[in-house]
Amino acid sequence: MRHFRFVAALCAALTLFIAVPARAAVNVVTTLPDLAALTKAVGGDLVQVQSMALGSQDPHRVDAKPSLALALRNADLLISVGLDLEIGWLPNLQTGSRNPRIQVGNAGFLNASQFVRLLEVPATKVDRSEGDVHPGGNPHYLYDPRQAAAVARGIAERLAQLDSKNAATYRANATRFVTELDAARVGWEKRLAGLKGVPVIAFHRTTPYLADWLGFEPIAFLEPKPGIPPNPSHVAQVLVQARQRKVRMVLIESYYNDREAKMVANMIPAQLVVLHGGTDFRAGETYIQHINEMVGNLEKALTAGKGG
Amino acid sequence: MSPVSRRPRAALVVASFIVLLSTASASAQESVPPPLPDAGIQEPDAGADAGSAEEVPPSLTPEELAEIEKAFGGDTQQGVPATTSAPPTATPGGGLPLSIPGSGSGTNLLDMSFILDLAAAAFTSKEPLQGGAHDPSRNGFNLQQLELSIGSVVDPYFRFDANIVYSQFGVEIEEAYGTTLALPASLQVRAGQFLTRFGRLNPTHPHAWDFADQPFALSRVFGGEGNRGLGVELSWLTPLPWFVELTGSLTDATGEATARSFLAASNDRVLSPLDLQATGVVKQFFPLTDDLSLMWGLSVATGPNPTGYRNRTDLYGTDVYLRYRPITEASTTLLTFQVETFYRRRQVPGDVLTDFNGYAQAAWRFSQRWAAAARYELGTPARGENGEVAEDPLDPEWTKNRDRISANVSFWPTEFSRLRLQAARDHARWRDEADYSLFLALELVTGAHGAHAF
């Protein structure tokens, strides 16, 4: 029963609780590595950033490891994608972190979807017969650098509010980052001009923002409905559609098993493009490098498709 | 340790709880920051006073701060309660008539979901030894449960969770408790009716189980509903560099199906904290690699039992959970291994009874939709201080070992539905022969998407 003596002593000590001096850097935890990369871009050395998920993980299905609650315990700011993307794993961690700052509704919680021009917001009633739907809109908006720019500005504003001493620095960093991103975007758009109006097949509904930006046309998805794995009859249908429309590209995120996608791409025939699900933030990759790599993959498929 | 020496300490814990609760709101250091206006981004000058709660604006001297604290009873930073239920207005689609609660804003008034568990069952035995209240237990169709799960943030200081279980002929409040959100120093208090955190499986609901029924260890030691009660719990996330969580709770020690080894059905009046069940748990988590995690728990519970004056029951348990799930590459593989043991020591008139119950299970999810699992369980008879098998007041027929082997296959059409085919061989050595059983269980989940605990 030593444990009880300990708890009793602890409670007594707590009544004499004394202030802890604030840390120098703002401690930010993001759900996904793309958000971490954007935060690092606008926060620089003033922030300490950590992503809960890896880019190689399906953001819908992340394990709520207790070590993540540990990371949240000391966070000044938690940034999430929102739109129910993290609904299966984030709420318990927020509660378990015992950190009042990052609870929904407080200044230390930022739902990044508020800065985004959302796509696929259902205009009618939805239910799960449609599969695992996101009733607030499609959450995969960070594939579009224009949305990422808006998110970066939003993150900078929130950092400026939490750490008002350095507000000017955050805003200047955001402006510099957005300028850099816009310049890169012009280059990417030039390289991928040939994608306009091109029909493509995708695995999961992650493509609307990318399609909106680059102008290609996702005509069908290998998943019959979001979250439901491909089945033979549906894949056969997709294959017929793809051949009819002369599809030259099949897109799949790196966190999905690409067995079916590979097979379909071979049968059409079309190029298989693997999109990295997120920035490899842990290895030091920046958001711009991540999109640049994605653009490179699309470009390769585009030129190969033309040649083939 | 004698009960007498525990009495002042338990009283101290209770007293500290009360002091802690009353001072929590007066702690100005880690209090809730002021709420944001609904418009998401603030004008820079409007946000000037919304800094981190730990910061003192440079223009404020310590004397001034002391004066403010004096005037406001230490509540310097606690503004108007945040509007936790108002979605940010910048989110389009927030006002749609949605049939799924918890629309995309990430905030909503109430998360509700219904979970239905049905099973068709066949047993070779006339009297199956199924102890769990939600187990399939008779030939033919079984309504295991219809669970209504409700959760919501109450205000910046509390969240509310409840699990209300409907059976065919009644309703019971399985859990209904509040959890603090804003206590300082990584502390958290739960108060209400809740499942104690003893071990790994006890605090969970059938939806999270890898099998259609619960291990008999839980129903034998705690009762068919698992160990729960009205009470209060304090948990602390220690500042150590790895996850160490300490939990202590005091709960009602009565209940035939919830505190079987303690007061069970007897209606003894509570005269001191010693008449309640006290539970202590240490949970540790080790992320061994990106793909491999280990959770280790040690639990102890103590409380009175009705066999005589000041007779007590002590339970000691440990649980190990190993989880392998590749996350650095595309994979749907999930391998889990779980062991839980319960050692029970009961004071009865003229003797002390000890017995051991436990289970070990492995589950392998080999594709997005399919998984297989196997489980071995063991329960020993109660033995007296002389080592001989003794008369067990709770399970008089349990005079020899009992073991059970179960195996199942699960199929998830989507995340919201599950079919499970399970077979078991239950060998209670005091019976003439082993019993066999076969279940086909169906689970449907509708409503809000619940968050999964680890």
Automatic annotation (TrEMBL), chain A:
Q: Show the InterPro entries listed in the entry.
A: AdhesinB (IPR006129), Bact_metal-bind_prot9 (IPR050492), Lipoprotein_PsaA-like (IPR006128), ZnuA-like (IPR006127)
Which keywords does the record carry? Signal, Transport
Signal peptide residue numbers: 1-24
Organism domain of life: Bacteria
Task: Please tell me whether the keyword Signal is annotated for this protein.
Answer: yes
User: Does this UniProt record's set of keywords contain Transport?
Assistant: yes
- Similarity comment: Belongs to the bacterial solute-binding protein 9 family.
What is the protein's name according to its record?
Zinc ABC transporter substrate-binding protein
Q: Which organism is it from?
A: Myxococcus landrumensis
UniProtKB/TrEMBL annotation, chain B:
Which region is the signal sequence?
1-28
Question: What protein name does the entry list?
Answer: Zinc-regulated TonB-dependent outer membrane receptor
Q: Which keywords accompany this UniProt record? A: Receptor, Signal
Q: Where is this region: Disordered?
A: 28-60, 75-102
What's the domain of life for this entry?
Bacteria
